[in-house]
Amino acid sequence: MSLKTASRVLNGEPNVATATRERVQDAAASLGFRRNAVAADLARGGLSRLVGFITGDLANEFYSALASGIERELREHGLQLLTASSDEDPEREASLTGELIERRVGALIVTPAGADHSALRGEIAAGLPVVVVDRPAAGMDADTVVIDNRGGTRAAVAHLLAHGHRRIAFVGDEPHLWTYQERSDEFLAALREAGVADAERWVRSGAHDAAAARDLVLELLAAPEPPTAILAANNRATVGTLQALRDTPGGDQVAVVGFDDFELADLLGITVVAYDAVEMGRRAAELAVARSADPDRTVEQVVLPTRVVPRGSGERPPR
């Protein structure tokens, strides 16, 4: 039996006699052989069926939903997802990007942590499909999927203003993140337009996890004039805000709107700015597949809508 015949059997190719196929398969099983699909794809001149996804934080359910949407869409095209977390560290993101490219992934989907992604221009020019999700990437033209951060923030502020609030605090993530900048800028603009003076004094950043958010909200609540309402600018900030309000006398009278829906928010009665994170991931994967099929297609930006979902916490009047 020739090496070529064995290769055809192991690659699932047709036109091999049944007896020969069975002998090859029996020998492979006895040797513990496992086909290297990545090497096989590359040997045939094709791209790997692996798609890399660099997420911001694997422990955050938002990124889990993103990954779920990506994986579901890729599965429809016979592709598989390889996920790594940057922990919102630009240097780690750059390192992971290099490692995934070295592994010859067929496409790359990134939630940008860094400010400059010009280093990827060469990879894009060489034909690697690159899609950025949740935040745009500076320094390169790439397909992008984001949500309407400004529209969602403005709607949340309008909701709290409509319920009589003027002392509204904003508790957000790390200030270098594009999503923080979009949401905080729109928060301040909306309050200025409503005639609220010195709104900047209610803005806090650094709420990357619930513990940090809790500390920031406790500081706000201890002020001589504490806020009567809080816009928590991500799901972790919302959880930390709720912890701080639980530990503060009268905290249950402070109105809360959280950006990002989260598990049990409906049962807890938390008003949120919601959107479909799974669809966000699905659209990112869809763009990666389309770019792989047509490298010269026009770069596309997808903006998904947001909406305020009233559940009780954002409808409390000021006290």
UniProtKB/TrEMBL annotation:
Q: Name one Pfam family in it.
A: LacI
Annotated keywords = DNA-binding, Transcription, Transcription regulation
- Gene3D superfamilies, per this entry? 3.40.50.2300, lambda repressor-like DNA-binding domains
Signal sequence segment: none
Q: Name one GO molecular function term.
A: transcription cis-regulatory region binding
Origin: domain of life:
Bacteria
PANTHER family xref list = HTH-TYPE TRANSCRIPTIONAL REGULATOR GALS (PTHR30146:SF109), LACI-RELATED TRANSCRIPTIONAL REPRESSOR (PTHR30146)
What is the protein name for this chain? LacI family transcriptional regulator
Species source reads: Promicromonospora sukumoe
